[in-house]
Write a structure and sequence with these properties.
Helix 3 packs parallel to helix 5 (143-155) and helix 5 runs parallel beside helix 6. The chain has a six-stranded mixed β-sheet with strand order 6-7-8-3-9-10, sandwiched between helices. A hairpin with a 2-residue loop joins strand 11 and strand 12. The relative contact order is 0.12. The two termini are 44 Å apart. The chain is α/β, with parallel strands linked by helices. Residues 246-308 and 322-327 have low confidence and may be disordered. Helices cover 37% and strands 25% of the residues. It binds adenosine-5'-diphosphate (ADP). Adenosine-5'-diphosphate is lined by residues 11, 18, 20, 38, 40-46.
Amino acid sequence: MIELQNVHKVYAGKEKSVAALTGINLKVEQGDIFGVIGFSGAGKSTLIRTINFLERPSSGHVIVDNKELGSLTSKQLREARKRIGMIFQNFNLLDSKTVFKNVAIPLILNGTDKNQIAQRVHELLTFVGLEDKADSYPSELSGGQKQRVGIARALATNPSVLLCDEATSALDPQTTASILQLLERINRQYNITILIITHEMHVIKNICNRVAVMENGEIIEQGNVLDVFGNPQAMTTKNFVSTVIHDEVPPIIWTVSATHRGIAAFSNSNLLGIALKSHYYSILPKNLMCKSIYYLLPPQRCKARRSTTSLLNCAEQSHRLNKPIIL
Ligand code: ADP
């Protein structure tokens, strides 16, 4: 579906050049929601922009839908790009145009018939939940609504791929969640392959099935999300894992919270502990996952499943000592 083969990108500067991508190999399968995560400056934006040739690679091959973009004529490239939608962190809407016009732009540029445009835009605005905003201007919309317009516009030409460039980074957590749900629906309902670049671990955790971790223009780890984050190898990947774990410590009181499939979680006001049979934190049921992970223990440290009594004892002891106990 999308394949990058040994892609390099060097930005030539007056004084020195910057190697933003150094030998990227990446394969995104049809129907994937593929995340690329990395800290600022890792090369994520450059990477995503090479996939629609907004940025031409200095060397290497970019193949989308079986077409090697570097070998296409300008006209063929314009056609190929219609199958690659893109949304942006800052939405990239035209402030002087209505929501209707913003969504219609790709269709107007294509020379689509007026009635068809009206029908398609209506369809798209209904899909993203903005059917009543057709005549509004971007300045009258919230950030989440602006991104929905961006999404509707990206879908106008029926793409097979949707590229998301930090699409939720400017949004609050609740709006982020609703946009991620919308992306998931697009993936499921239209079977559109999605590639997301982000520096936010929860984005990957919430909707991606595969992930690549980037650092210094290279992919340092990639694979199934469960495998990569369940057993992170590189320090950067470990850092990303720790960001979500600490984010999710809630200030609530639990006793033994759950025992399920070899997992036991317990907590009190000072502590959230978890015993995992497996080191895959993501196999936790969703409600448990967001409430109870504090320690992600490697499997060798979680011996057998603990009895409820022994977990309660641990919880009590920890409460008494006022510090967490790691099983
Ligand atoms: P990220 O999206 O992960 O923050 P970028 O792809 O934006 O990373 O940048 C990767 C590297 O390439 C950085 O060192 C950045 O300064 C450099 N870079 C990005 N765009 C340009 C450009 N147009 N000209 C020169 N250097 C650039």
